[in-house]
């Protein structure tokens, strides 16, 4: 008997970042020393104080369902944090804690998009934006970046004025480029979108990992902007799966219906750890140290890449990715680096249509491993 798979699922592509990770695992099983600069997560452990709070929650029996929006005390702390650090005036009831920021993006896309709609994504964009949009049946309009890996504003404006766009996705600091957009840049992009009746989704998951600029949250000044954030990158809690979405009451009331009928609620004891992350000054000290380490690694990587004659790398201003132009097909280069150098990177083709000569390199690895990776790369770049 022939069993049907929905077209909705068939049009979704596997994650290219995880695909390269699987190839690396196979080489490791063969005994090879593989340096992974592919998957985007900090290599640091979750701070001990956060783990301690979660362990205490487990030991005390805090292991059952919570409010679908998340525990009230954590939402209240987030409301205070957003007001203090992001200038976003929001009530705790306008925040939903989700099992990861990725699921928060899923909630927004499922609520705001459907068959026949269109979303605007920048080229390049994080791989899961595209698939989250495709799951709704909506189409995608791509907007190019310039040579400095910043949005092409004229093209962006033309798209929004000529096409009925329902949702614009902004990501600053940006994955995969590492660029941080200024307040002026973000204001211009948001105002053009809102003038053309599009919602704006602002993914700010890397907000604390910034080196050379200041972070700006557009929800501070504009309605119809949905803010996405989480604990994964800032506190090295990727496996804990805890994010959040911030929006007005009308949207929150729609988002929560999906959460209630899918994942029910975020993990109980992970929320207790997040309380500690926000409450304990030790957490901020540890984050500051981590960001300092990332900055040093960035400098080492960018200097090394730009020393190769056929590679050009714009210095990233945030997150922990470099996105160099390697002057040739990124799929070929990524496979060559893996097969010949045992170094994992992600091909730029995974992130959009216009960056097939770029590769994404994560510097969330030790200085020693980055140095060794650069030495191995000389084999194909010089």
Explain what this protein looks like in three dimensions.
The structure is a single chain. With 382 residues, the protein is α/β, with parallel strands linked by helices. 43% of the residues lie in helices and 13% in strands. It has helices spanning 7-10, 16-29, 48-59, 72-86, 101-112, 127-134, 153-162, 183-195, 249-260, 268-279, 281-306, 330-341, 367-381, and strands at 35-36, 95-98, 118-123, 139-144, 167-171, 199-203, 225-230, 243-246, 321-322, 343-344, 346-347, 359-362. It is globular and about 55 Å long.
Global morphology: globular
* C-alpha-based Rg, rounded: 21 Å
- What oligomeric state do the depicted chains represent? single chain
* Named CATH topology of the largest domain: Aspartate Aminotransferase, domain 2
Total tally of structural domains: 2
Order of adjacent strands in the largest pleated sheet:
2-8-7-6-5-3-4
Question: How would you summarize what this structure contains?
Answer:
By secondary structure, this protein is α/β, with parallel strands linked by helices. It has 13 helices and twelve strands.
List keywords for this structure.
382 residues, alpha/beta, Aspartate Aminotransferase, domain 1, Aspartate Aminotransferase, domain 2, seven-stranded mixed sheet, three-stranded antiparallel sheet, 13 helices, 13% strand, globular
Helix and strand layout, with pairings?
Blueprint lengths: L6 H4 L5 H14 L5 E2 L11 H12 L12 H15 L8 E4 L2 H12 L5 E6 L3 H8 L4 E6 L8 H10 L4 E5 L11 H13 L3 E5 L21 E6 L12 E4 L2 H12 L7 H12 L1 H26 L14 E2 L7 H12 L1 E2 L1 E2 L11 E4 L4 H15 L1
Parallel strand pairs: 1-10, 3-4, 3-5, 5-6, 6-7
Antiparallel strand pairs: 2-8, 7-8, 9-12, 11-12
Helix pairs in contact: 3-10, 4-10, 5-6, 5-9, 7-8, 10-11, 11-13, 12-13
């Amino acid at each position: 008997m022939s069993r049907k798979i929905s077209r909705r699922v068939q049009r979704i592509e596997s994650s290219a970042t995880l695909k390269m990770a699987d190839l690396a695992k196979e080489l490791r099983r063969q005994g090879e020393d593989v340096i992974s600069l592919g998957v985007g997560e900090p290599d640091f452990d979750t701070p001990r104080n956060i783990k301690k709070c979660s362990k205490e929650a487990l030991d005390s029996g805090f292991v059952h369902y919570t409010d679908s929006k998340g525990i009230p005390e954590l939402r209240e702390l987030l409301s205070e944090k957003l007001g203090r650090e992001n200038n976003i005036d929001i009530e705790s009831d306008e925040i939903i804690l989700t099992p990861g920021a990725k699921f928060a993006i899923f909630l927004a896309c499922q609520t705001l998009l459907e068959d026949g709609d269109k979303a605007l994504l920048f080229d390049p964009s994080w791989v899961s934006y595209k698939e989250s949009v495709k799951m709704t049946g909506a189409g995608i309009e791509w907007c190019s970046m310039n040579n400095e890996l910043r949005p092409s504003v004229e093209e962006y404006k033309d798209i929004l004025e000529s096409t009925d766009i329902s949702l614009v996705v902004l990501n600053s600091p940006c994955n995969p480029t590492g660029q941080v957009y200024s307040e002026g840049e973000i204001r211009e992009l948001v105002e053009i979108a809102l003038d053309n009746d599009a919602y704006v989704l602002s993914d700010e998951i890397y907000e604390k990992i910034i080196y050379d600029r200041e972070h700006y949250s557009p929800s501070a000044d504009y309605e119809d902007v949905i803010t996405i954030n989480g604990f994964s990158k800032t506190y090295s809690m990727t496996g804990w799966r805890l994010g959040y979405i911030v929006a007005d009451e009308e949207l929150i009331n729609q988002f929560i219906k999906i959460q209630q009928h899918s994942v029910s609620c975020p993990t109980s004891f992970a929320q207790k750890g997040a309380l500690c992350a926000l409450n304990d000054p030790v957490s901020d000290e540890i984050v500051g140290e981590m960001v300092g380490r990332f900055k040093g690694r960035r400098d080492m990587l960018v200097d090394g890449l730009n020393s190769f004659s056929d590679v050009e790398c714009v210095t990233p201003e945030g997150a922990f990715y470099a996105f160099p132009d390697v002057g040739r097909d990124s799929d070929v280069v990524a496979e060559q680096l893996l097969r010949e150098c045992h170094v994992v990177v992600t091909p730029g083709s995974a992130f959009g249509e216009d960056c097939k000569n770029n590769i994404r390199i994560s510097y969330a690895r030790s200085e020693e491993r980055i140095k060794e990776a650069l030495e191995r790369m000389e084999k194909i770049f010089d």
